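Class prep. Protein, please:
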Amino acid sequence: MKKIRTAFLAIVLLAAAACNSGRPSAEAEAVRSVISVSFRQMDDTTFFFVRLYMRSPFDDMREVFPVMSGQSDFTTSCMLYFDQQVLLSVDDGQTFSVVLHPGDSVRMTLDAAALRRGETDRAATFSGDRAEENAQINAWTSYVYPQIYQTWNYNLSYKDFMAAFGQKLDGLRDELDRYARENGMSPQVRAWAARDLAFCLSNTLAGTPRGSNDVLQADKLFQMTDDANFSSLMFTSHLDSYIAATMAEARKELGISAPPDLIVQAMVKKFAALPAGWVRDAVFYLFISGIIDGGNRDALYETVPDIERHISHATVRNLLPEVYRRFLYRTSSDVEMARVVRQTSEGPVEITPDTLFFSYLSRQHPGRVIYLDVWTAWCEACGFERESAGVLREALGADTARVAFVDCCVASSYDEWLAALDTPTAGRTQYYLDQEAANALLAKYPVETYPVYFLIDGQGCLVSDQAPIPSHLDDALEAIRDLF
């Protein structure tokens, strides 16, 4: 009851502060932008599954559009405060990158015949606003993205590893200079491409022992407080990395056993030292939205009014009460589900978990800590973390018997899930959540990025909906063993 009273008090204080603050703030209005996509050279047998991604700290839009000969176009809109990159993925394989400016109406035509042949570089044409700019962007990304992603040798010393990373980045920048000269790339597109290159390359390190935050901090191109960074789809991931690094720093300074409220207060103080503006607002918004460990939720209750004081834009302050109410709602823990599918030795079996899913899992694994992986079949990072879960199990040693590793596939088709299960799944219980079941889970526990891990203690109580991921081995071990 004390938690609830504290939470409601903070909501009242936050709402009052947002309405009555007398200090001037940089007001901003979101502007509607529109993307229209049409397909040509469709035939009666062609079917495409188009996914659209646009992620900023304040808006995470992920939409799916089935495209066929009878309906070969779609239109979607989004509200923008600043330039924003949007990624279209066709059949989760061929990708097209578009940068929207607030108020733009961008029209894109995709050639179905070229898509069927796998000719991504020839498939897209643009009209409407920024047509030439987006044509250049798409041509560049189609050319360079296959060169960016690689497997890094993490066995190198840190000095040698950073040298290898720097050589890769320098080489790609030289390639950008050559490409820009030979293809007449405009200065505006080249500036965007140089910025996005650093973020995309660094994103290959996200979730690894090397991390991505230090790499960007060391790069002279990366200025974390530059609003132009928001034009990269990858930027929010690096704000997440900054928050995680700040949390690790605060824990180190205060001691690993420091109370969560002191850690949160130390983090708020560090964030407040950033220059006022969109980036600082984004850091605070992501922080309170639950990007950090869910175990700090009680401390966040106490800290919300202080966080509001540091936010520059009234539009962001006005988002906080709803976020805060979501935190309060999420403390009720369990999720009602009518049915789920479980993989057994005889194959997939539909089960009814007596409506409450976490309670069902606890009955299946009595007295054990449940480490629940919520993943998607189309997410590369999910596959990496599932492999890292094997390392985590080995690191637990004799304690492995006290932990149940449970996987829940969401936001994927049934066939995609079955195909993904071709990978080794030893030591894990596998579930598939259809759209209705996944919506029930994600409405209560919104996911910013996949995979996300939940921790349920031996008594069946949800402890964290943002538990450390397996590749953050020491943090994951500590979080799990704290529940024994």
Remarks:
- The first helix runs from residue 2 to 20.
